[in-house]
Every structure is written in C-alpha cells, then in structure tokens.
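Retry 2 of 3 after timeout on previous attempt. Resubmitting structure tokens to design endpoint.
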C-alpha cells in the first residue's frame, strides 16, 4: 500500500477537516501518515496513523528560516517522513512557501534538476490544462523552462492520462520570435532536435490558455501565479454574475430553476478541488500543495492523486524523459538553486 504523509496544519477549515479527507482517502485504499495537533483532530479512521505535531509554520513570513529553526513543525516532520521512507509522497494544506522549503531541505531536488516547479491542473470544461510554474520561482532561465516542459509532459501522461500532451510556451504572440529573449531561446531549443520526443506546438497567448489550445503550458513562476489568480478571479466572478442576473426578474428566476442542474454540473467540473491542488515537480519524491480553502473532499483528492503519481512512477518517468534529450544538469554544472527561495505567491490562499 502506498502511504502519503499529510500536513494537517494551516488549512482554512482546520486540522479536523484535513483528517476527514485523510479518512476518505484511506477508505479508497491509500495509507495516510497524518501530522497535526492530536487534541484538535481526536480519533482517526482505520488506515490513518496520527503523529501529534501541533506546531505550524504555515503563516511564517520567512519559510526558509522557519523550516531551519523549527524541526518539530508539522510540515517539516511530514517532509522528513517522506525522505526517511516512511511515506512515499507529501501533501500539505498550509502555505506554498513552507511546503516548498520543507520539501527541498528534506526530500531534495531530483538528480539533474535545476529547479522544482509548481504544476497545477486547471479544471477547464472539456479541456483541462496543466500550468507550470505557478509560483515556485520568480524568474527562470531557458534551461529551467526547458526542463519544465518535459516535467509537465511526463506528469500529464502519468497522472492526467493524456497520451501525447501538447506542450506550449505562454508568450505575447504565437510567432517564435515573440516574447522575452529567454522565451525565444527556449522556443528555439524545444522546436529543434533537443525537443525530440516532446509534442511541442510553439507559443500560445493568454487568450488560448482556457481555449484547449494546449495540454501543458509552460511559464516562469511570476507569470504563472498571476495567470492562475486571474483565471480563478474571473471564473469565480462570472459564476456570481450569472447567479445575480438570474435573480433580477421572475423570468430569470424561472430560467435559473430550469438551468439549475446544468449549472451545478458546470460548477462541479470547474471546482479546484477536483484536481487535488498544485504538484511540486522536480523533487526526489512527489509533493502536493492543496488549496487552503479545500474541504475534506479536496484533501482526499490531493492524497489520492499523490498516491497515483507514486504508483505511475511519475518521478522516474520525468527523469527518463529529461535524460533521453540531455536536459539533466551534469555533475560539473553549478546548481541553479542552492537553497529554497521564496515563491512568488501562495497557491494555497
């Protein structure tokens, strides 16, 4: 049985809600090693082992310093459990910065990886799309973006079930010469022999992200986090506007009643909980950062998908894809990131 280490601290609805999600995942055959305050959580379900870890650094202003100085923190203990082999993947409902720092210090970057990336499957109706990086790195060099393209493709195949993912770069135009010098450089590399084995379709613009133009969209973390929050904000506001419009007249209310089942299905389809959260790729083990607003169902999904990533061996598949095209950092190259750097913003709310 695959075991997932889960940090129960930092979630908006409290540790007990995370524990309830762990119970749901355990019912579906995933072992859970849960780190959180035993006093708040109480008894746990069969298949869930609780480790009393009441200290949280989810709100720490300096995640790196907090991870270094607080070894008893729940997220640090959970990441260490994965590093020690007591669990095979990590799930956190706390801050992205703390989760990344704890994972990098304990689980470590995978061999040959320049930088980890946060990958988020966006639940777009009919055409889900994987965005990366959505917040792990403020800026990225061409070699980082090149690796992200292969990480995203391997993940989309192993976890999202897409046989031949279409990979694109997010830019301000479709032409190869559009974008920053770094984007132009990575486009040239992906479009050439080095991109063999990758279904690279070139650049796409922001308007195409939600239009099904690509399955994997690659960008730096600063751009990615802004893109993510913009999509979330517009989609949320649109749903509110539709509801408000339906309440302005009796005809609207009648139409709302008729459209109710369809709108409910749409809301479920675009629900962020359906994807499980953002995935820390480029580490030696898989990590997932669930959104802080998730209910038990979202945390259960995060745990399940983390376990599926282990079962499908997405880490080894990513490494193999990068090795085949010579994209792994060689032993004599200086490391691009010697310690965790603060993410651009939290995807956990």
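Retry 2 succeeded. Sequence:
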């Amino acid at each position: 049985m695959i075991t997932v280490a889960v940090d129960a601290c930092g979630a908006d609805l409290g540790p007990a809600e995370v524990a309830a999600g762990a119970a749901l995942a355990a019912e579906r055959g995933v072992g859970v090693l849960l780190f959180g305050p035993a006093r708040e959580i109480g008894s746990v379900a069969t298949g869930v082992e609780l480790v009393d870890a009441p200290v949280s650094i989810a709100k720490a202003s300096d995640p790196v310093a907090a991870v270094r100085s607080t070894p008893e923190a729940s997220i640090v203990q959970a990441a260490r459990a994965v590093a020690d082999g007591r669990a095979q993947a990590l799930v956190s409902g706390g801050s992205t910065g703390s989760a990344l720092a704890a994972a990098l210090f304990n689980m470590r970057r995978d061999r040959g990886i320049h930088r980890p990336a946060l990958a988020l499957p966006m639940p777009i109706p009919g055409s889900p799309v994987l965005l990366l990086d959505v917040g792990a790195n403020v800026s990225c060099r061409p070699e980082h973006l090149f690796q992200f393209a292969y990480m995203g493709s391997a993940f989309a195949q192993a976890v999202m079930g897409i046989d031949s993912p279409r990979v694109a770069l997010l830019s301000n135009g479709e032409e190869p010469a559009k974008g920053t010098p770094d984007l132009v450089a990575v486009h040239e590399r992906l479009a050439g022999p080095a991109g063999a084995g990758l279904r690279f379709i070139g650049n796409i613009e922001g308007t195409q992200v939600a239009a099904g133009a690509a399955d994997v969209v690659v960008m730096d973390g600063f751009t990615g986090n802004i893109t993510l929050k913009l999509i979330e904000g517009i989609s949320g506001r649109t749903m509110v506007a539709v509801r408000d419009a339906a309440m302005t007249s009796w005809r609207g209310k009648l139409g709302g009643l008729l459209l109710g089942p369809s709108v409910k299905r749409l809301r479920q389809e675009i629900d962020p909980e359906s994807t499980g959260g953002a995935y820390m790729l480029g580490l030696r083990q898989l990590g997932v950062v669930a959104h802080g607003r998730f209910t038990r169902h979202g945390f259960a999904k995060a745990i399940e998908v983390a376990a599926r990533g282990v079962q499908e061996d997405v880490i080894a598949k990513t490494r193999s894809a990068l090795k085949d095209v010579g994209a792994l950092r060689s032993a004599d190259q200086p490391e691009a990131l010697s310690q965790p750097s603060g993410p651009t913003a939290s995807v956990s709310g």
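Attempt log closed. The radius of gyration is 20 Å.
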